[in-house]
Design brief:
Layout lengths: L4 E8 L4 E2 L2 H6 E9 L7 E8 L5 H11 L4 E8 L2 E16 L7 E9 L19 H10 L6 E5 L21 H12 L2 E6 L6 E6 L8 E5 L10 E6 L5 E8 L6 E5 L11 E4 L4 E5 L7 H14 L4 E8 H4 L8 E5 L7 E13 L2 E10 L1 E4 L7
Length: about 375
């Protein structure tokens, strides 16, 4: 393992335990992906080298076959600061037999705890007179044994159902139903591992692009450079003006309502945004209530405003910590147009012998930063 880096691997059905040293010694590489997109489940892959007499056969293959859920937690400690990279379950594994005297390779693939929420269909369960927040809380309560802590933000445009008009019912698995509710009100749902092993935060709310930024990514700054590569793109065709149709209950005539790209939870990070060159009419909103239609319009406006994107790689040891997705980060040394704060859209972390690298994607609404400086 790298100097200054320590990795802890915990495995178990629901309650996890540290694996034996022989398993850590056989571990060749770890890959973890975390994304803030619509399908925001984190995924992981562990690769081991083993022989036919290796205890890996018992720990992963036999245990995975006997238990419907094999939980895996990976914790990486850099300079005495631990970070829970992933808390999930194994979904499948593959074996590559060794040839010419070489050892075999065992690959363990899995997803975060949203995978547990996608295995059982609860369709048809009624939720009488329950707003969306209450439904989410009831659904997440059953996953308390996995250390799931709900963080539910009230909807921006509440539209509680009247029992005399309709009674909402569960549709599909827990994950499918929660993601459907999130899409209806312009929210996101994801599970963030940590802050300590065994605990997870289940977030249901708007995609927040505010908070304390992470240390800056430095480009072309000699000894202060901490990224290996970073490229930017300004796509003016991505900016779209969504128009929702709200139906007049008396005349049944749809009323078009343009939705500006203004969201208090997603303040602009660029001073010069891309002008909206496209108009997108959301025709499926005419049958919704005015509050639900506005929520869909706000969600579409938020998705179409990020015209600036950046992609790059960094050495986590030189950066001094692990870059986290779903958070802000500063950029320095890229020039006036692209310096400033960005939202970290996704991060892929690769840990192997001799390296700890991350590949990342950044987004923001326009060029030229609105902040005079970013945290170093």
């Amino acid at each position: 393992m790298l100097k200054g880096v320590h990795m802890t691997l915990l495995v178990g059905p629901v309650v996890v335990f540290p694996v034996p040293k022989v398993v850590i010694d056989a571990l060749q590489s770890v890959r973890v992906t975390a994304s803030a997109g619509a399908q925001s489940a984190s995924g992981f892959e562990l690769k081991f080298t083993f022989s036919s007499k290796s205890p890996l056969n018992t720990i992963f293959l036999v245990a995975g076959a006997q238990s419907p859920l094999l939980r895996v937690i990976v914790v990486v400690t850099i300079n005495a600061v631990p970070t829970v990279m992933v808390d999930g379950v194994m979904t499948h594994h593959s074996i590559t037999p060794g040839q010419g005297g070489a050892q075999s390779t065992l690959s363990i693939m899995g997803k975060d705890l949203t995978e547990v929420m996608s295995r059982q269909d609860f369709g048809g369960l009624p939720y009488p007179a329950m707003p969306i927040e209450a439904r989410i809380a009831i659904i997440l309560a059953k996953y308390a044994p996995f250390g799931l802590i709900p963080l539910i933000v009230p909807t921006l445009f509440p539209d509680p159902p009247l029992p005399t008009e309709r009674i909402p019912t569960h549709d599909g698995t827990d994950l499918e139903y929660i993601e459907k509710l999130a899409g209806d009100v312009g929210y996101v749902f994801y599970i963030e591992p940590g802050p300590v092993p065994g605990l997870n935060v289940a977030y249901f709310g708007p995609q927040i692009k505010i908070g304390v930024p992470q240390p800056a990514l430095n480009v072309d700054m000699d000894a202060h450079t901490n990224v290996e590569s970073l490229n930017f793109r300004f796509d003016t065709s991505k900016a779209t003006l969504p128009i929702v149709l709200i139906q007049n209950q008396l005349t049944r005539i749809p009323i078009p309502l343009p939705i500006p790209a203004a969201n208090p939870l997603q303040p602009p990070l660029g001073a010069i945004p891309a002008s909206a060159s496209n108009v997108k009419v959301l025709r499926d909103t005419a049958n919704l209530s005015p509050m639900a239609a506005l929520a869909k319009g706000v969600a579409e406006a938020a998705r179409s405003r990020d015209a600036v994107s950046g992609s790059g790689t960094l050495n986590a040891l030189r950066y001094g910590r692990l870059l986290k997705s779903r958070a802000l980060v500063g950029v320095r040394g890229a020039g006036l147009a692209f310096d400033g704060l960005y939202y970290v859209e996704d991060v892929t972390t690769d840990l192997a012998a001799g390296e700890l690298r991350q590949t990342f994607t950044l987004t923001r609404n326009g060029i030229v930063s609105i902040t005079p400086a970013v945290p170093a």
